[in-house]
Amino acid sequence: MQSFFSRFAHKTSDVLGSSKTFTLALCVVVLWALSGPVFGYSDTWQLVINTGTTIFTFLIVILIQHAQNHDSRAVQLKLDELIRAMKSARNSLLDLEAMTDDELENLHSEFQRLRAKAVERKERRSGTS
Fold first, then answer.
1. Which of 15, 17, 28, 100 has the most CB atoms less than 10 A away?
2. Comparing C-alpha atoms, which of 98, 73, 78 is closest to residue 10?
3. CB-based contact 38:48 (threshold 8 Å)
4. Which domain holds residue 104?
5. pLDDT, tens only, 19-33
6. CA neighbours within 13 Å on the CB side: how many for 58?
7. How many domains, in total, are found in the chain?
8. In terms of domains, do 54 and 71 share one?
């Protein structure tokens, strides 16, 4: 069942992200708006679009989030493999998504300091050339 849901979520995400789907959705809204005078802009007329879009959005957000989580996890695993395969890389950087916010902030600060040192070295080299 999980495999079916995953395939379904990815396919749905691909289809919903297309210009054809946007055009179709736009046409539905335009047709709904044009039908307003026919239905006297009644509460029921408004309720149809509100209910339909709410239910659709609720379901689609779940599908897209699942597909995005799957893709994000795959990218993280690929990056972890690249880190693991490089002799000079720090294996402590594997599985960073499991770190706490404080641990990530400390690591971020460390990389900011490293970048500042690199910029400083580059400026010294270019200043002496």
1. 28
2. 73
3. no
4. 99-129
5. 999 999 999 999 999
6. 6
7. 2
8. yes
